[in-house]
Amino acid sequence: MMTKNSLFAVALLSLALCAGCATGGGGHSQGIQVTVSNGNVSIVGVTLTVQFTATVTGTSNTAVTWSVSGSGCTGNACGTINSSGLYTAPTVAPNPADVKIVATSQADTSRSGSLSVTVMQITVVVTPKLNNPLEVGKGLTQQFTAIAIPDAAPQTFTWTLVCDAGPNLCGALDPGTGLYTAPSTIPNPATAHVIATSTIDSTGSDTVDITIVKSRLSGLSTYAFRFSGFDANGPIAVAGNFATDSNGGIIGGTEDELTSNTQNTRTITAGTLSADSNVHGTLTLTTSAGARTYKVVFNAVGDGKMIEFDGTGRRGSGEIAQATPSKFKNSALPSGSSFVFGLTGVDTVLKRAGFVGLFRPDGVGAISSGRLDINLSGTASSSTDVIGTYNIQSDGRGTMTLTNNTSGLTYDYAIYMVGGQTNKANNPLTLFVISTDGPQNSPAVSGTIVFQDPTPAYVDSDFTGFTVSSLTGVDSNGNTLVSLTNAAGNGNTQTHLISGIYDANNAGQIVPAKSFSYSYAATPPSSSGKGRYELDLLGDPAANPVVPPVHFVLYSSAASRGFLLDQSSPAVYTGQMDLQPGANFARAELAGSFAAANANSVTSGVIEAAMNLLFTSDLPDFTVGGKQDETDGGQNAGQTLAGSYTVNFDGTGTINLTQPGAVNYVIYLLDNPKLDNRKNSAMVQHFVMFDKTNTNSSIIFAER
């Protein structure tokens, strides 16, 4: 959370204890009383103003004399205040930074009231920003944004570019807007620095380091991708990877594809990425089945969201991520570790299906134990006796077999390595996975495998964090059901309750901010693994008659996060739980650019969209702009976005677009740990949202 938020909490406590206390002889219960207020302002930036007012009782003469003092300053170094109570902060914050504003009664100078504020230098935060230099492709543009703290400070900055190779060799930076254009020729060295400085405080600045590169795709790298959607015959899913040459050009790869009636493994023979900015491009991959084209929006680290955008009649969405070649081996799944997974798709008669579970590899290709929960169109099953094998090849593609000894069934998968760590929750090792069994013989599912953090015991008392759960299902008529929940477990081993609110769009029927409180229980750890919880979500316990909740199983990848599967209904809700940093959110924390797209759309009527969103925070205006590509029956590229946004204290909010048309989204802010290498941790890095009026809505994931 930002500094201003923690100070705000302290200020509220101070106000509760003494809201402009009156001082002087005679006690507080008689005579003249002076009370000072300022609209609950606790922090003021240097050179900014705050209006104070004094309320005088016990006399007809209500005039006061204003003064300012501080233990770390004298005279104008504390700021100034005029006869009307308008306080102007000094140009340099005193140390200590608190100053006291005093209103003294002119009728009785022994009577006064006071209130303190904290003066702070302007803090500037620039986005996007990483620990490593931000890569910008040659000739491409990158929009940088900044916010000034406190929020009341002018959100105006002077932007400067410092080029390590010398003046005028690193492109151009608009000094007023922060729009950077990389040069068409890469300088030597290829590094530069973008600096935003507050226009009212030269000490308030922030710097982003950049590296100018040949392509938006890194050279001599591998990228993994996954995609799901629909063609004219029914559901489809794709997972694969491709390699790049030294210039970032695509030189080949492999993909596995599921349709409603076939499974195919194909070689990617060619491909291109045509980038029109550093955050947007068009990706084309060619196999023996022809060329497929996708619109891609990139996040700060170079991973992206994508939607299909071609004339094949297919519609869907997915993600692309740079892989780590050092993980292309069996030992990347080390002995003693555990991995959890969530898979979604259809069964052999094209009804909705969901799988969640965990497995324990041995580091050399065997899976010694595991658990599995399945929901096939409302028929749920669970197994604690799962074994299998896996084999990861040097190109990053592998195979995995899971055998459910409870049912006697075996499931075959292709796996594609992405990257990450196998020692803690932050940036966990991730794999994309897709069925390779024939879809007429076995459920056709795809999804993600994630390393499980070994630190928690995964018992009832561990389930305490604030979380956001993103859930998608299908009703009996084939309509989309989506919901977002904001909840926290109490960690109590006796009552173990999870309580919160949720918003839902059930095929166009809107359920706004519904409260709930239900039980949860950790499954005792065993030789088949740990991290499994059972819990109830959704429903309406206050309704008459009561709307019962949906019973879920959660496989945790870390404390209070993981994969969710409905175990009680034919809607087969699937989704994920993400850790949220709790309450105390502010709208300014969302300022900057985000890449966003649909995820796991479950009906063919969903409008797929890939968005580059740009949020601007400038009191009292909080606006959103950007561009989007979308498929609403046709293909609409480069649509301009315009509208406004709100953020509530609890991390919920709205985006209300007015252009290209009226669309209203419910948003839930996240702090998914995948980008824990960021410096500007005070800024929201991820959020989820859905259209609250569309009858075919979909969860949209956004990341900075």
Describe the structure.
Helix content is 2%, strand content 54%. The chain is mostly beta strands. It folds into four domains: 3-120, Immunoglobulin-like (Sandwich); 123-213, Immunoglobulin-like (Sandwich); 222-322 and 582-703, no CATH class; 324-347 and 363-438 and 449-579, no CATH class. The strands form ten sheets. A nine-stranded antiparallel beta sheet has the order 23-22-21-20-28-27-26-25-24, with no helix packed on it. Strands 29-30-31-33-34-35-36-37 form an eight-stranded antiparallel β-barrel. A hairpin with a 4-residue loop joins strand 22 (250-258) and strand 23 (263-268). The chain is globular. Residues 1-21, 23-29 and 672-680 have low confidence and may be disordered.
Task: Please tag this protein with its features.
Immunoglobulin-like; 9-stranded antiparallel sheet; 1 helix; 4 domains; 8-stranded antiparallel beta barrel; 704 residues; disordered N terminus; mainly beta
**Rounded Rg:** 28 Å
Q: What is the count of structural domains? A: 4
- Classify the secondary structure makeup into a structural class: mainly beta
- Strand percentage lies at over 45%
Task: Tell me, briefly, the overall form.
Answer: globular
The percentage helix is under 10%
